[in-house]
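can u do me a favor
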């Protein structure tokens, strides 16, 4: 299972079984992608227990990795709003110098980003010991256009893991459990549907009128609704649902309270967002609205997919929705 030397850029990469310290770079900052990759960390540890894993990431992914038992160290990337071409040169190079002192055997980047500032960061952090879509544009690592999941699967195949366990290990913090339990008791909520409006991309977020219609379609299940939202959005949705006594808008203090809201839900309804991955981790019954092929859904035997228009998650077949709801 040795890593094949396809080009000069890979000549210093050791046999993957000899790697003792690996740096995994996650420049997206996306919580959903980090949750999806967490099973890769676990499988690497199972196949090679002596390997130390350091993950370089930021934003919500950084918070999540700090509570991942398979990650030995988390390094915060200085990316702010995200990785962009010709931005954050000084901060990235300074971070790379800090990482270089740790003498990684291998840097693994599954993001597919090819910006010059990012390439220099990786070069300075690990020298020639970089495995990414640029240094290995052919199998076994995967083509540049391949997804992070495909790249990670190729690395696991090198370790002899042909069929990895793709389940997620999500942390349940006592502080988050207590905070959510207090709100549920105060509002006297016994059972609820977690309805997540979506993210900042308009094509991947429910419009207010669609949200109201979704609530109307789901009221046949005779439970309350909880909308967990960022503080900047709560006032807007309080106004939208001010006349709905069965809709509760809540502000999770952090991602771990969001995990707890999902874990306690009777049903999760959401477009393609990190909430879908959280629900999969807890194997919650879910209704997922996908603007791309539902084949990209995380493994969740209790999830039902409703395919939407590719450019707008608000355009879908309401008859199919009613049919799916009848099955819950």
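np, heres the sequence
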């Amino acid at each position: 299972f040795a890593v094949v030397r396809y080009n000069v850029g890979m000549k210093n990469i050791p046999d993957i079984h000899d790697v003792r310290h690996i740096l995994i770079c996650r420049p997206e900052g996306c919580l959903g992608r980090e949750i999806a990759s967490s099973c890769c960390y676990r499988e690497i540890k199972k196949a090679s227990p002596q390997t130390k894993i350091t993950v370089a990431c930021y934003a919500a992914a950084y918070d999540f990795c700090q509570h991942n038992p398979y990650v030995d160290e988390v390094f915060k990337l200085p990316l702010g709003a995200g990785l962009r071409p010709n931005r954050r040169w000084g901060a990235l190079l300074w971070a790379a110098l800090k990482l270089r002192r740790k003498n990684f055997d291998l840097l693994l980047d599954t993001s597919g980003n090819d910006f010059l500032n990012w390439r220099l960061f990786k070069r300075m952090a690990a020298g020639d010991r970089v495995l990414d879509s640029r240094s290995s544009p052919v199998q076994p690592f995967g083509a540049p256009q391949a997804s992070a999941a495909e790249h990670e699967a190729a690395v696991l195949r090198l370790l002899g893991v042909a069929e990895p366990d793709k389940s997620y290990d999500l942390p349940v913090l006592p502080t988050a459990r207590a905070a959510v339990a207090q709100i549920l008791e105060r509002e006297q909520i016994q059972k609820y549907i977690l309805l997540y409006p979506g993210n900042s991309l308009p094509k991947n977020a429910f419009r207010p009128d669609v949200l109201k219609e979704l609530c109307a379609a789901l009221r046949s299940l005779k439970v309350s609704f909880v909308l967990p939202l960022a503080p900047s959005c709560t006032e807007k949705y309080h106004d939208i649902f001010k006349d709905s006594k069965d809709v509760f808008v809540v502000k999770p203090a952090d991602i771990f309270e969001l995990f707890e809201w999902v874990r306690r839900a009777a049903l999760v309804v959401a477009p393609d967002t990190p909430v879908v991955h959280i629900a999969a981790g807890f194997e919650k019954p879910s209704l997922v609205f996908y603007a791309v092929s539902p084949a990209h859904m995380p493994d969740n035997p209790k999830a039902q997919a409703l395919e939407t228009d590719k450019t707008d998650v608000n355009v879908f077949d309401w008859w199919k929705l009613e049919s799916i709801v009848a099955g819950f």
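The CA atoms of residues 1 and 118 lie 29 Å apart. hope that helps!!
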